[in-house]
Amino acid sequence: MADGRVPKLIDTVAWVRIEDGRILCARPKGKDIFYIPGGKREGTESDLQTLLREIEEELTVALLPESVAHVGTYEAALHGPASDVVVRMSCYTADYRGTLAASSEIEEVAWFSYADRALVPPVDQLLFDDLVDAGRLA
């Protein structure tokens, strides 16, 4: 940082689920912004372990570990006034079994197109940009 402070890093993983040119997003209870589903690792969890746990907790489905593939890793300032915090989001696609449903910690799920980009935080917007450039997001 310009003032010599070292930014704090929040290390997250996210599930990129695209259907019909739209990406699955979730709004946690008490928040006013949508996120790509996923979250922070606990302890020494690997990306895969974190991804499987977080998606089951948030969306009540089980990702199929053998289908998980890395899409990209993005970094951007945290949404809001804490400009000395950087979010790193490692993104993965995966197939799943079960029925997608918001868990008790999720207020709402939605399928977003690129037109909805402003409704997600800066790090998620970087993913939106790459997906639209690749022709995967409407």
Q: Any overview of this molecule?
A:
- Strand 6 (69-77) and strand 7 (85-93) form a beta hairpin.
- This protein has helices at residues 47-59, 122-133; strands at residues 8-15, 18-19, 22-28, 38-40, 62-63, 69-77, 85-93, 96-97, 106-112.
- It is an alpha+beta fold and 138 residues long.
- Strands 4-1-7-6 form a four-stranded mixed sheet.
- The protein is 18% helix and 36% strand.
Short note summarizing the structure:
The protein has helices spanning about 45-60, 120-135, and strands at about 10-15, 20, 20-30, 40, 60-65, 70-75, 85-95, 95, 105-110. It has about 140 residues and is an alpha+beta fold.
Characteristics of this structure?
alpha+beta, single chain, four-stranded mixed β-sheet, 138 residues, NUDIX_hydrolase_dom, three-stranded antiparallel β-sheet, globular
Instruction: Name the quaternary structure.
Output: single chain
* Gap between N and C termini: 35 Å
Uncertain regions spanning at least 5 consecutive residues: none
Main structural class: alpha+beta
Strand content: 35-45%
The total of beta strands comes to 9
Strand order in the sheet with the most strands: 4-1-7-6
The major beta sheet can be summarized as:
4 strands, mixed
Q: Calculate Rg over CA atoms.
A: 15 Å
- C-alpha geometry: globular
Run of helices and strands: EEEEHEEEEEH
The amount of helix comes to 10-25%
**Average predicted confidence as pLDDT:** 93
- Work out the helix count: 2
Domain Nudix hydrolase: 7-133
InterPro entries: NUDIX_hydrolase-like_dom_sf, NUDIX_hydrolase_CS, NUDIX_hydrolase_dom
Keywords: Hydrolase
Protein name: NUDIX domain-containing protein
